[in-house]
Amino acid sequence: MKFEDIEQVYFIGIGGIGMSALARYFNSKGISCAGYDKTKTELTENLQHEGIDVHYEDDTTLINGRFLQKDNTLVVYTPAVPGDHSELNYFRNNGFYVIKRAEALGIISRGSFCIAVAGTHGKTTTSSMVAHICKHAGLPVTGFLGGITANYNTNYIESPGSTITVVEADEYDRSFLQLNPDIAIITSTDPDHLDIYNSAEYVTQSFEEFTGKIKPGGKLIIRKDIQIKPAIQPVFEYGVNVNGLAASNIRVENGRFLYMVTNNRELIGEFSLGVPGRHNIENSLAAIGVGILMDIPADTIREAIKTFKGVKRRFETIISTNTVTYVDDYAHHPTEINACVNAARELFPGKRILGIFQPHLFSRTRDFANEFAQSLEKLDTLILLPIYPAREKPIEGINSELILGKANINNKVLINKAEVLPYLTDILSNIDVLITMGAGDIDGLINPIKNLIQSRNS
């Protein structure tokens, strides 16, 4: 099937952050879109308000008849959908053109100047920064992002006559190998998704293979301490206090990071970033590197970084009162928890920090139980929730108790979601900073916790 022949697209797993961006892309082109997701969320409701039909039961009788015409219907699915999904198998068994989300993204981006941001951590914020720099510079850019940007309140950014595509290159299921970027960024290669890769060595190999997908004459921007063997040379390295593209003289003033940026020791200038965390300074360096390679003036890049407001659920301040600040973060890997808690410690020195963490996936908990415990020990108080299974079946002996028992912290408790608000009610006066962390359905606690804090404050 040629993309120009497509009249409608059906999405299986439409509520995913990457899938919904694709749905918004096709919808913006006047192509009819519909889809299934197992859970109603704010994101799926927004898609419905945009004119996209969504249902929440795996039932082929709920599919609008026009999407059952196989000659002009594209079916896109996320690899997180189980293999026994009846709708997915219906389309497969009846000769429809069925492709993964990554393949669709690869086809869309192939005809443009593609900037792909990869990494086990940091790719959502970095790709959002890159898209914002391009947008701020007036470049014709389309962005497929892995989060809702605060600047644009969407995960899909589009400019008229777009010739540049910014994509979040997802390593899960080796999806990023469908892309052929002109500029690629690698922010991190820490072991993750070991249910797919089996070992850290295979994670590294996959990122090395990704560098081989860069177009001839393309560029690679990579964090200084990443140990891989890129398929292209030279590479543009970045980091804090390193040779290459570097940040130095870092300080915090009025809740913002100020830092000097140099490129091979040549001064670019002082930058101001309102998104907390030294890891986000590194993310900004990668985005600044894209701006330099695209010949965007330094003053334009600097102003874009200054006006970047962050990404929803990436150290997002939900509410701040005279007594407590509540931050929500997507952190679901030990490295991300470390970055989140370290950012809080730097931003709120000497404050009592409580973290509520919901582990995501049995396999990830099994693979990193020790590391999770060590990262959570940096909190003053830990509330641990049961594992969010997502696409997985339970693994015998793997549960949140495994992390709790290993965490060397005095104030720790394991409770379920329904018990969180009553528990917080009793201890809220003893904390200064509250952080919710996780990639499951912990975001359902955001508004209830916010309301609790507001009622207490009033």
- Work out the helicity level: 25-40%
What Rg, in angstroms, do the CA atoms define?
Answer: 22 Å
**Percentage of residues in DSSP E strands:** 15-25%
Please, what is the average pLDDT? Answer: 93
Question: Would you write up a description of this structure?
Answer:
The longest helix has 16 residues, at 278-293. Helix 11 links the parallel strand 18 (353-357) and strand 19 (381-384). The protein has 3 domains: 3-100, NAD(P)-binding Rossmann-like Domain (Rossmann fold, 3-Layer(aba) Sandwich); 111-307, Mur-like, catalytic domain (UDP-N-acetylmuramoyl-L-alanine:D-glutamate ligase); 316-457, Alpha-Beta Complex (Protein-Tyrosine Phosphatase, Chain A), CATH 3.90.190. It has helices spanning 17-28, 42-49, 86-93, 101-110, 123-136, 194-197, 200-211, 278-293, 298-307, 334-347, 362-376, 400-406, 420-427, 446-457, and strands spanning 8-12, 32-36, 53-55, 73-77, 97-100, 113-118, 141-149, 154-157, 164-169, 183-186, 219-223, 236-240, 245-253, 256-263, 266-273, 316-320, 325-329, 353-357, 381-384, 411-414, 433-437. The strands form 3 sheets. It has a 10-stranded mixed beta sheet with strand order 8-7-9-6-10-11-12-13-14-15, sandwiched between helices. The protein has a 6-stranded mixed beta sheet with strand order 16-17-21-18-19-20, with helices on both faces. A 5-stranded parallel beta sheet has the order 3-2-1-4-5, with helices on both faces. It is 33% helix and 25% strand. The N and C termini lie far apart (60 Å). The chain is α/β, with parallel strands linked by helices.
